[in-house]
Design a protein that fits this description.
Two copies of one chain form a homodimer.
Chain A: H1 6-17, H2 23-35, H3 40-64, E1 68-69, E2 72-73, H4 75-101, H5 105-129, H6 136-160, H7 166-190, H8 203-206, H9 212-220, H10 223-235, H11 240-252, H12 255-274, H13 281-295
Antiparallel strand pairs in A: 1-2
Helix pairs in contact in A: 2-3, 2-6, 2-13, 3-4, 3-6, 5-6, 6-7, 7-12, 7-13, 9-11, 9-12, 12-13
Chain lengths: 298, 298
């Protein structure tokens, strides 16, 4: 990541210091080991996936106009939109070059498809957010593209680094996709205080993001109630007491239970795929990782 | 460019309708023909180079917070930062996939390097803009990276689509780099009204961008004058009459002549490279194209 541009060096140093849980590289390595032997290619895949994830977070800072990320000030707040876009572009191109220099063409195709799906998923979300009455199938389409695509690419890239069997690679992609969907539902649940995480609640409601617990609750509601909730989301989404009202509405309609069940269903499907591999320490580690990302408290 | 996301389809349709002069694809095709025969690969190279140029313009809309581009409202003004970042990312990944699907790996490496240089060049400019006393060599380094890199990649990608001779490909890269530098100096001259183009003047001064005419003029000035000009750029760069004062200062110091001479020097060096090819209709067309981009009135 070294660059002759000192400003860029400073920012990448700052990004590296503030790195997250790095679950995506873990998915790469465990997938690689599950399908064969960890190789030089697995390390390149792990680096590339984390790099693109980081680049997308940096761009997301522009996108969401958010001032905090991972508990500290975002690149955007510290250095403004201008720089965040450029640093994201730099990281993207750096990742591409890393793979090109190592002739990892299949890997490049896997992750380029993920980047494409990611931007399409976010744009679909923005488009649908204008109309609040989105249906479950659109919700699943959005999270499949914007979250699940990168975890799916981590798993299939890991597999591709240790096997040539296209069927196995596709199986791992599907496994990753299901985990990614479960992961995002878990994230969406946090917004309603499904766990006592001390995290501020109702951020998605403030940003008019329609998530599964809310979509389900609205489906159950009568017309008058639905109109009332839409009105809060459209016009009073910055008033904490109004947002609290929506959260209570979702909790009382069984929206959290419904979403939690959906999450477990996807996780179960993922485990079923995982169990087509024979028992091993690696398979157990993968199970533990999946349990971690779906049970995590923050 | 088709996408199942209607919002994205609408935006790409809008982008395609408002396409610019498309000089970069022309450089690709002329370079290809100069070094051999135009092939399927040349078309892919031309598409990819224009696609990345478009993606960088879309991201630039975020970057510069500019409200107009090519005479009409920018993506940013119409659809906001959020969307511009995502659309740019979509175009980048779409371009990468286009090349990957066609196994154009050398092309990918050429353009990925250009994208990397582009973001580094812009960041270097932002970094140096904080200190106004930048030197000529930094100016040339910035424009080499942020403008010349993409034109250099257009020429080398075109060459690589019709020959395997690495020396010829490198020669065309160098040719494109010199053209790109001349092209950017021409652009920087516009800001001082070197031609009567009816374009608003002093935009770069307002944005505290230090360009060659200004850098040269400041070099010639005495300490008092320099301090006065720095003061305007730092504190009064939004006042039209003050900006006019800087423009007059640059004009009276011979800054325009100096920059114009530098531009012609780079163009001459480019022509010298071009003349290592024997005379042909293609070589003449390339000369005409170079003359067009360096003599253009807007």
């Amino acid at each position: 990541m070294r660059s002759p541009v000192p400003l860029l060096d400073k920012i990448t140093y700052y990004i590296v210091r503030r790195k997250g849980k790095q679950v995506r590289p873990m998915f790469v390595f465990l997938s690689a080991k599950l399908c064969g032997t960890i190789s030089e290619s697995s390390f390149i895949a792990a680096s590339l996936v984390e790099l693109l994830h980081t680049a997308s977070l940096v761009h997301d800072d522009v996108v969401d106009d958010s001032y905090e990320r991972r508990g500290i000030f975002s690149i955007n707040a510290l250095w403004k939109n201008k720089i965040a876009v450029l640093v994201g572009d730099f990281l993207f191109s750096r990742g591409m070059l890393l793979a090109l220099e190592n002739k990892q063409y299949q890997l490049l195709e896997i992750v380029s498809n993920a980047v494409k799906a990611l931007s399409e998923g976010e744009l679909l979300q923005i488009e649908k957010a204008r109309r609040l009455d989105i249906k479950e199938d659109i919700y699943f389409e959005i999270i499949r593209q914007k979250t699940a695509s990168l975890i799916a690419s981590a798993c299939s890239a890991g597999a591709a680094s240790s096997t040539d069997d296209e069927k196995v690679i596709e199986k791992m992609r599907l496994f990753g996709e299901k985990i990614g969907i479960a992961f995002q539902i878990r994230d969406d649940l946090f917004d309603f205080g499904s766990e006592d995480v001390g995290k501020p609640l109702g951020i998605d409601i403030q940003e008019q993001k329609m998530t599964l617990p809310l979509i389900f609750a609205l489906q159950q509601a009568d017309r008058a109630e639905r109109r009332k909730v839409f009105n809060i989301i459209k016009r009073h989404n910055k008033k904490p007491e109004k947002v609290k009202e929506v959260i209570d509405f979702v909790r009382n309609s069984g929206g959290l239970d419904y979403a939690r069940e959906a999450m477990y269903r996807y996780r179960k499907e993922a485990f079923e795929i995982l169990h087509t591999f024979s028992h091993s320490e690696t398979r157990q580690s993968m199970e533990d990782l999946v349990t971690f990302v779906t049970e995590r408290k923050r």
